Amino acid sequence: MNYLSKKAAGIEPYAAGEQPKDKQYVKLNTNENPYPPSPKAEAAFRAFDFSALNLYPAPAADGLRAAIAAAEGVPPECVFCGNGSDEILALCLPAFFDADGEGAAFADVTYSFYPVFCDFFSVPKRIVPLEEDFTLDLSKLTAAPAQGVIVANPNAPTGIGIPLPAVEAFVRENASRVVILDEAYMPFFGQSAAQLTQKYENLLVVKTFSKGYSLAGIRCGYAVGGARLIGGLERCRDCFNSYPVDAVCQAVCAAAVADGEYYARMTALVVSERERLRGALQARGFCVLPSSANFLFARHPLAAGRAVYEALRARGVLVRHFRKPRIEEFCRITVGSREQNDALLAALDGFLPRG
Ligand code: PMP
Questions:
Q1: How far apart are CA 244 and CA 258, in angstroms?
Q2: What is the pTM assigned to this prediction?
Q3: For a substitution probing ligand 1, which of 111, 112, 295 has the most ligand atoms within 8 Å of its CB?
Q4: Residues 245 and 171 placed together within one structural domain of the fold
Q5: Where is the domain boundary, 232, 259, 286?
Q6: CB 111 less than 6 A from any atom of ligand 1
């Protein structure tokens, strides 16, 4: 007997970056932050009252919501918290798109969870190809017939960022439909549109604690938007899991988001390592897309993407390779600590053809 629904049996799920345990790798494949979370977040974790875990957490994560609202400069009612930004992006589909509607528009080369969410919620996909140089022509997205649009800024896996003025014009031009901005990598670009949610009611900005806040292991994300969009997410959350953010997570993330000074320093370190690594890869013949994120998307004219991935893996360095049209020649390399990046460069020097 096949007990699965047609959907469960037929869907192609998202493939997360590998997390192998067979040996210690230099792990530059899932865009984690190489630096530890804020000491204040750690203190909040240690101070957490374990005996209080018999109680359910605050359903809307009120304390965390207030801390995020203070950091973003928006009212708490404009914040929605979830179990990772993936969960929030997933909830966006039933909240803002109809199965018999015009669909969700997004780029052909972008975060590969978007098409999976669409398939899962039976929302039509309107795929808009990126330009030859992997930039996004926003006017093509505006022209796409769709109930709403999803844009990762900076984009993944390319790392290319769209400046805030262009984003604002785009949001204005798409006033009749929802614009979801996935700002997972925004800390490394610094041009967040979160404030614009107070001006444009069609805009939802989705952020995560996984990258800029070094808290990928705790699973927390949030959205900033006007009352109507936040209300839609709340309705869908309460049809699925009314306590998505656990109490420990709420306490730790509230402390993290309040420690902007620490994270500004760590982010500056990642950004300066990104620039050093970019130069070092270019010196080795790589073509590297201009990145505003904490990773670099690079291809080598003399070595295939899969070959680079496999040779690095054999040398104990993990990067991400996608077997997908247009990007098969590339590897996505997370910016690590100085030591990790040096290990990557040494591994490359072990096999790259000298041009
Ligand atoms: N958006 C993008 C573009 C991402 O790359 C990721 C991380 N894989 C996410 C969202 C999800 O991050 P998380 O669920 O850890 O918040």
A1: 21
A2: 0.97
A3: 111
A4: yes
A5: 259
A6: yes
